[in-house]
């Protein structure tokens, strides 16, 4: 009870350390989701609209990668960015950029797989019309992505939820450095082990509120778009 009250006091006072951790978490996760969306949405749409040898295998792999263990992704990125790795000369390891790369790799399969299913369902409805208008492959992808933009919010939110809640991968490639690469989840794990429950609880409260607010906003936007389309 005392720890919970102290946590709310930290939040209400605008504790500088707490706000810095929240700010970094949002920057890293939103950047990762943006990068994953730029690659995943066109990839998912392309898989939905094209047929080629090995397509089924690629879809199965993509769906399987949705459950990639974060620590395995973190280890792979660590080896890639370490001094002996192919990208070691860039000095990216133990920086926010390394964390963005790791989270983007985790989020990419989720966004691509959900986008593929959404676009494939919409393609059945639009196929005859777009074929009659002789719309090319790129035009089809752009049209279907735009028309399903509100439905695709689900994919983006699923990706954001995976990114913002990630611990293992970002701890491996970020190092959990205080004031530089410490996110909400890594800070919660560290502060709990140290016995600093007020800060851990405060970050936990903020994390839950952020997820709820973003999901509520997306749900409201989707309902509004459906009402507008029907009205």
Q: Which word captures the global form?
A: globular
Radius of gyration: 20 Å
CATH class: Mainly Alpha
**N-to-C series of helices and strands:** HHHHHHHHHH
CATH architecture descriptor: Orthogonal Bundle
Low-confidence stretches: none
| Cα-to-Cα separation, first versus last residue | 50 Å
**SSE class:** mainly alpha
Helix content: over 70%
What is the tally of helical segments? 10
Descriptive account of the structure:
The chain has 231 residues and is an all-alpha fold. The protein is globular and about 65 Å long. The mean pLDDT is 87.
Main features:
231 residues, mainly alpha, 10 helices, 78% helix, globular
Topology:
Elements: H1 2-12, H2 16-49, H3 55-65, H4 70-81, H5 96-132, H6 137-147, H7 153-164, H8 168-174, H9 184-194, H10 197-230
Helix pairs in contact: 1-10, 2-5, 2-6, 2-7, 3-5, 4-5, 4-8, 5-6, 5-7, 5-8, 7-10, 9-10
Quick synopsis:
By secondary structure, the chain is mainly alpha-helical.
